[in-house]
């Protein structure tokens, strides 16, 4: 039967894009894996369905940024075990891509290798600083030489002019006697003291690598219906965000990354996407029993994570007591909060890992796979990577 035409025809759907790979900054290294393992274990102890109040309280007291007075609230919601992400999967996503075609794959690999990341890191630093005043030492050398010669003539005055005319009025002795060059041994050795007009510029020093701290907690899409829990990335040099955007723009210009929404850098700690929705009878039993019922009940869109955010976003006050910085102070725009994170501020909330060196850009395959490295659990397999500095 031929397809219907006219007003009864069904609108044709645009072809769906099946993303196969993503560009990222890896966060799991030999130096950070121990910190991530310890912090994620505490996060699971406090928020998992199987954790009891005593274990959660002791984990909270042992936390690096949770004072000895911290304890797990009795109504703290629980996160299903399958939602937690293992340490080996930690990264900052710059963009997702569909590299199912051979042409796009080759294009992405070539672009990853061709980008001058050191230059982008310098540009990111320039964006965060004010312009330098004009340096007179960097004026063209030729102009300085011409000005020096003009000053010399002006200082000589009429005396120099009369000396020149007097010299011209005398007969040229070289025309009255034979010209014989001095023997080689008596020739004066001359060395040029003239500096090149355009000296070779000194090579720019390599920029310092990015050093990050993972801190606090945020959620997507909202705190009351959280499907993703993530840690914030803090960079004291303030280069992380502009650098990530510059790299992303290169892949967007090549047509490989099609996402146009603002880039929100985050390290995923738990994702409800990996949780299989229970049957209706199991759903009722989960929501009506055990610790975390009520505010922690699992819904179709996620869990109510407001108490978890309040717990992990605490900071120590000047008097040593815990101060709740709230759920509105750490998450980026469009998520569970609307207030921007001050890049100059000290990282607030729980510190998951610090001094993480970010020195690579990777293209990884979608879908985490088992990893043989101790403590990693799973990892996203890299198909290519480039060193930043």
UniProtKB/TrEMBL annotation:
The UniProt record lists the A-kinase anchor protein 7-like phosphoesterase domain at 20-116, 206-286
Q: What Gene Ontology cellular-component terms does the record carry?
A: nucleus
Gene3D superfamilies noted in UniProt? Cyclic phosphodiesterase
Compositional bias of kind Low complexity: 55-71, 153-165, 285-302
GO process annotations (BP) = DNA alkylation repair; regulation of DNA-templated transcription
UniProt-annotated stretches for the region Disordered: 55-74, 151-170, 176-214, 274-302, 317-342
Q: Would you say which domain of life the source belongs to?
A: Eukaryota
Question: What name does UniProt use for this protein?
Answer: A-kinase anchor protein 7-like phosphoesterase domain-containing protein
């Amino acid at each position: 039967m031929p397809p219907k035409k006219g007003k009864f025809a069904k609108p044709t759907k645009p072809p769906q894009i099946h993303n196969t790979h993503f560009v990222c900054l890896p966060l799991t290294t030999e130096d950070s894996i121990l910190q991530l393992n310890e912090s994620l274990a505490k996060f699971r102890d406090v928020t998992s369905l199987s954790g009891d109040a005593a274990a959660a309280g002791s984990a909270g007291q042992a936390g690096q940024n949770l004072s000895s007075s911290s304890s797990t609230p009795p109504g703290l919601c629980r996160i299903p075990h399958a939602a937690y992400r293992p340490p080996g999967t930690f990264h900052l996503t710059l963009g997702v891509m569909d590299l199912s075609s051979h042409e796009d794959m080759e294009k992405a690999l070539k672009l990853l290798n061709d980008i001058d990341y050191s230059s982008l890191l310098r540009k990111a630093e320039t964006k965060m600083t004010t312009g330098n005043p004009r340096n007179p030492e960097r004026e063209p050398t030729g102009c300085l030489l011409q000005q020096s010669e003009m000053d010399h003539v002006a200082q000589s005055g009429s005396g120099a002019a009369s000396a020149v005319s007097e010299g011209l009025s005398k007969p040229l002795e070289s025309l009255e006697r034979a010209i014989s060059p001095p023997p080689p041994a008596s020739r004066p050795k001359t060395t040029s003291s003239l500096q090149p007009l355009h000296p070779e510029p000194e090579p720019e020093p390599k920029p310092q690598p990015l050093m990050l701290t993972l801190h606090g907690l945020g959620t997507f899409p909202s705190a009351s219906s959280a499907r993703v829990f993530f840690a914030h990335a803090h960079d004291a040099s303030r280069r992380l965000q502009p650098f990530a955007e510059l790299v992303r723009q290169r892949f967007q210009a090549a047509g490989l990354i099609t996402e146009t929404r603002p880039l929100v850098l985050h390290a995923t700690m738990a994702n409800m996407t990996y949780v299989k929705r229970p049957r209706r009878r199991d759903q009722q039993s989960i929501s009506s029993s055990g610790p975390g019922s009520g505010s922690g009940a699992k819904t179709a869109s996620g869990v109510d994570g407001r108490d978890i955010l309040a717990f992990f976003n605490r900071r120590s006050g000047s008097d040593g007591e815990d101060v709740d910085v709230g759920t509105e102070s750490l998450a980026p725009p469009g998520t569970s909060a609307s207030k921007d994170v001050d890049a100059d501020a000290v990282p607030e909330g729980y510190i998951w890992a610090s001094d993480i060196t970010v020195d690579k850009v990777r293209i990884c395959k979608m879908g985490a796979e088992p990893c043989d490295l101790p403590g990693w659990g799973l990892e996203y397999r890299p198909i290519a990577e480039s060193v930043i500095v």
